Amino acid sequence: MGREGEYMKKTNSPGAAAGAAADGKGAAARAPSAWDKVQLARNPGRPTFRDYAARMCDEFIELHGDRLVADDPAISGGLARIGKLRFMMIGQQKGVTTEERIACRFGMANPDGYRKALRLARLAEKWGLPVLTLVDTPGAYPGLDAEARGQGEAIGRNLMELAGLRTPILVVVTGEGGSGGALGIAVGDRILMLENAVYSVISPEGCASILWRDGAKAPEAAEALKITAHDLARLGVVDGIIPEPAGGAHTDPASAIALVREAVSEHLRELASGPTGDRLVDERFRKFSAMGRFSAAKAIKLAP
Amino acid sequence: MGWFTKKAEIEPQPPLPDIWHVCPKCQAHVFKKSWESALKVCPKCGHHDRLGARERIALLVDPGTFREFGTEITPSDPLGFSDAKGPYAEKAAATVKKLGQSEAVVVGSGNVEGTRVVLAVMDFRFLGGSLSTGTGEKIALAIKHAMDFRRAFVMVSASGGARMHEGILSLMQMAKTCAALQRHREAGLPYISILTDPTTGGVSASYALVGDVNIAEPGTLIGFAGRRVIETTIKQKLPDDFQTAEYLLEHGFVDMIVPRAELKARLAAVLAYRNRV
């Protein structure tokens, strides 16, 4: 795990903090807050799935459809190659132009998207390819058709099936890790986050409107929810942090993509030489079992 | 003025004993005792009121056979979370005390008409039945127990979703419980999911809808996204029966809707089809 330590170190460098502070949000001379990071993670200039497919990969052959009802553009996937590394790449697509963004529902997938992701993951297992998922979504789409076609079932099914997939899975949260909609493609053997990505059980706005009864308290909620890459590393949810160019990925997408390429190649190579089959699945199970494991010493003190 | 002043002389009446239950759905006044003996189902409109975990266990499990475990698992506060109403730690401790229950789920093994199963029963009164690290851990423990003893696992959901106060670690319980279910499934063991009101958010998007057999109570609210969020997003009015058990049956996501009075017998009938050890 030496590499992961290095990523952490890189991210902790003063350059990274100064970079994010130069975002122009009046955050000069202080480390970016959780709320600053939410803005960075949502910046429309940030590389999207399509940028990674076109510029991080040396080849990307897109595969379409869930073989049931539709091809959801909000989740894209296909056969991908970096150098000699071949893998299955799956991720949410937010779109770039306004038309695309609307067609992709801003990266919010329908059940068809989650089922397509599962179909491609199973194909990867059959062909002996590792899976790379790129997570960038505000959440699963809250829509009439989404519910009618079983949004909950589709995500739950993925959680089960991905837990049992007998091929390595590398997860990279590149932008917004929005709740169950993110988790639906984020069960894996290694979970990485970009430096300014966020990953949360609920959007800060949603949390603020429920627990503060005031959506404007989103910055407070963002802070309280502990959603930054560093928070998640501390909580044992992510295994490594991929640094971004000073100021955030949107200021220099080419360098951001190169940094992701470096990390992805490294980890896919490590995973390829790691355990396979049942042992791989056992370790993945243990990884998730350890998350939030109960410890009497850390439990809330109860009155006798 | 004589009989005007008389009014003041009327002694204030002691409040009537609380013998009535008012159905939240049809507003019918029902004798509390008969409503309770009808398993909290309205005799006028059939509305199924929510049950606590203990009441549910008493309904499903043969008397004297339930053996609870996992009570040492209590709430944790991994984020040191505080909201507008104060620290989460205080709220959680007060809830444990008030309900006399260690978390939002009660787990244990028990007999259903003689068949030994492992059950996890959620309790909506415990912070909205929210899925937290403690809840997830108890459910995972129950699934492991079911695997160790090669038993069917019965999950009774009643939850508004993941517990925000424990942040990302609550979300990860969806993955943890489903990973455990996957192992249980690979071991060839039956998983029956019973969906009770409400089963929404992260719970609907993890273990609740992936049973070998999904059984719902009539009228149960089942859905991933909230009705208001959907209406705001798609800018249209949703059908009245949207996200009800009946709607899910029609769309193919639950196998059957079973009234509360028949639930135990139906569960036992389904479990009887397990034809391997």
What string, H for helix and E for strand, traces the elements of chain A in order? HHHHEEEHHEHHEHEEHHHEHH
Going by helix content, strand content and strand pairing, the class of chain A is: alpha/beta
Task: Spell the H/E element sequence of chain B.
Answer: HEEHHEEEHEEHEHEHEEHHEH
Q: Enumerate the spans of chain A where pLDDT stays under 50 for 5 or more consecutive residues.
A: 1-28
Low-confidence stretches of chain B: none
How many helices of chain A? The count is 14
CATH topology of chain A: 2-enoyl-CoA Hydratase, Chain A, domain 1
Q: Determine the fraction of residues in helical runs of chain B and give it as a percent range.
A: 25-40%
Would you mind describing this structure in some detail?
- The complex is a heterodimer of chains A (304) and B (277).
- By secondary structure, chain A is an alpha/beta fold.
- Chain A has a single domain (2-8, 35-272), classed as Alpha-Beta Complex (2-enoyl-CoA Hydratase, Chain A, domain 1).
- Helices cover 45% and strands 16% of the residues of chain A.
- Chain A has 14 helices and eight strands.
- In chain A, helix 4 crosses helix 13 (253-272) and helix 10 packs across helix 11 (218-225).
- The longest helix of chain A is centred in the C-terminal third of the chain and has 20 residues, at 253-272.
- Chain A is globular.
- Chain B is α/β, with parallel strands linked by helices and 277 residues long.
- Chain B has ten helices and twelve strands.
- In chain B, the strands form three sheets. In chain B, strands 3, 6, 7, 8, 9, 10, 11 and 12 form an eight-stranded mixed sheet that branches. Chain B has a two-stranded antiparallel sheet with strand order 1-2. Chain B has a two-stranded antiparallel ribbon with strand order 4-5.
- The longest helix of chain B is centred in the middle third of the chain and has 20 residues, at 167-186.
- In chain B, strand 8 (153-159), helix 6 and strand 9 (191-200) form a beta-alpha-beta unit.
- The interface between A and B is large, with 63 and 71 residues.
